[in-house]
Amino acid sequence: MPQNASAAALKALTEWWEDMGVEVDQSEIARLKPVQTGANTGPAPSDAAATATDTRQAPTSGRNSRKSANKGLHDWIQEAESLAAGADSIESLKAAIESFEGCPLKQLCEKTVVYDGTIGAPVMVLGEGPGGQEDRLGLPFVGKAGQLLDKMLAAIQLDRKTNTFISNVNYWRPPGNRNPEADELAVCRPFVNRMIDLAQPKIIVATGGVAAKSLLNSKTGIMRLRGSERPFETPAGTKVPLVPMFHPAYLLRRPQDKSRAWRDLLLVQARLSEMGVTL
Ligand code: URA
Questions:
Q1: Predicted structure pTM score
Q2: Does 247 reside within a domain?
Q3: Among 141, 147, 215, 222, residue to substitute to test ligand 1 (most atoms within 8 Å of Cβ)
């Protein structure tokens, strides 16, 4: 197979795996890609693209570029805080997040994924961060897990078009769909807090352990966090009840846990009804 054809096949195969919910380690895939040898052929256009992708996906390249700006984590968090504080609407916050260069993941992915759904909705769903499909389309929860999330929400009369706002605790896809690391979450956090302050949701649903633990600043796993409502407050004083729930990607792998997720959805529905929110 010509090199550019095999690179394309590898890309298609890994995308297909990811769509099926299989976690793909991009650094391993990069090692499988054909290496250009000899001076007889210049790289074909698609090989040149693959090379650019490889550079983006090298786990340390983003970190180096962040270092080269001579800023440390603390400086980037401060910059995120200042950008977030300067945003007075969800739209301007989105622009601020897109302009931010302090998350090393940004160099490794295609798009900044900020939100989808209805601004001002009573329900805010927060996941852990974009996957492959989300990175391609620039919207959260649009892959297989997102489709399941939509079905789960629909079961309690929630949907993106009318009453639900969807975002993540990290806006850039980690390579190979690994979990975002603590410093990656830390630079995003001022934006997440500001989003909650601006959106003023009645309830937050945190999908999966990464989102729930990060938002609640807890080491407790999702198995023990889920099942009840937790108090949540932003530094600016916005208080919102938070319901931790299994991540839909986990439910795709363990459908036997859907009954527990259903109980959590009923809890969300009951709390909304108690608060007088009509859906
Ligand atoms: N998983 C998440 O946590 N968020 C997304 O946007 C997509 C998949």
A1: 0.79
A2: yes
A3: 141
